[in-house]
Amino acid sequence: MTTATPHHLPGTDLALEQLPKVSLHDHLDGGLRPATIVELAADAGVELPTTDADELGAWFAEKSNSGSLVEYLKTFDITTAVMQTREGLERVAREFVEDLAADGVIWGEIRWAPEQHLARGLSLDETVEAVQEGLEQGVDAARNAGHRIRVGQLVSAMRHADRGLEIAELALRHRDAGVVGFDIAGAEAGFPPSRMRDAFELLAANFFPATIHAGEADGLDSIRGALTDGRALRLGHGVRLAEDIEVSTEGDGQVARLGRLAEWVKDRGIALETSPSSNLQTGAIAQWGTTLADHPLDLLYQLGFRVTVNTDNRLMSGTTLSRELALVADEFAYDLDDLLVFQLNAAEAAFLPVEDREALADAIIEGFEKAR
Predict the structure, then answer these.
(1) What is the mean pLDDT of the chain?
(2) Could you say which of 95, 98, 129, 216 is catalytic?
(3) Which of 123, 217, 289, 350 is most deeply packed, by most CB within 10 A?
(4) Which of 78, 72, 70 has the alpha carbon at shortest distance from 32?
C-alpha cells in the first residue's frame, strides 16, 4: 500500500487521510501506480516515454495539463495498453483499492470501460471478472492492514463506440457480482446520450442506476440529455450547469437566478461529481477562468446543490481525494463541517441500498466527530 505526505485541513494539524470518505468518480485506468505501469509495460512490450517511475508520474501530469479533454484522454493510451490481461487487470484493481483505503476511502465506486481491454483476447465478461477479483483482493489486503473499505464497479460504455446496449447488458449480467452502476465516458461533445437511448431504456426497465459524464466538455444540452435520454441519477462533473445560473448584484448583495435545468438538478438532489484539479486540466471551467478560485464548485455548494468532490484520475492529476479536499478547503475557506457535507452528499448519492447509505453516513459522521 502506498504512503504519501499527509494533507492537512488548512490551519489545523488534522490529516485529511484520517477522515472517512466516499469516492464516486475515480477511473480505474486513471489511477495506476507509475511503478506498476513500468513493470507491466516491460512484460507487455509497451513503449514508455521513460522507465523511471517518478519521471513517468511527472510525464502523465505534464501531458494532462492540456486544457482539452480530448488531449487529456490521449494519456490513457498507455494505461489501457498495460491492462489487457487478466493478471494486469487484477493487479491494477487490487492496488487501486489499497490506495483508496490508504487515503481514508470507505466506499469507492471504480469506473472503467471493459470494451477497452479486449486487445489480448479477453472477453467482456472475463475483464469484469478479472477486475472484480482484483477489487476483492484489494479489500482483503486493506482490511488486513487495518482499513475498512467497500467498493463497487461502475461499468462504462465509450460514447463514440456505439456499443452501449452491449455494455449495458454486460453490467446487468454482473449486477449481483460487483457491478453497482453504469456510465458513459469519452469525448463528450458530439456524442450525446441519445446515441445510446436503447441502453438506457434497458437499464431503466431493470431498475439499474446510471451516472453520466456531462457538463465537462460540453454544455447545458449535454446535461439535459444525460437527464432525459440517459435518466442519470448523478452527473459526472456537471460543472457547466453553472451556465444556467445568473448571478447579479442587487443593493449590497448578490442574487442568483436558476434556470429550469439548474433548478431541476438542485430540487431533486442530483449529485454533481466535481473533480477540481481535473476540471482545470481539461478546460471544463475555462469560461470562468483558469484557477481553482474560478471554479463554480463553491457557487453551486453555496446555492445548495448536492456537490461532491472527487479525483477523476489520480495518476493524471497527481492527486488523491484528501489532496482535492485540502485544495478546495484552502481556496474557499471551508472548515471540517463543509468537508463533512461533501462526504454526506456523496454517501447519499452512492449506488447502494438505502440502509447501506444510512450506515455509510453514520460511519462518516462518527469518523468526523472523532477528528474534532
Answers:
(1) 95
(2) 216
(3) 350
(4) 78
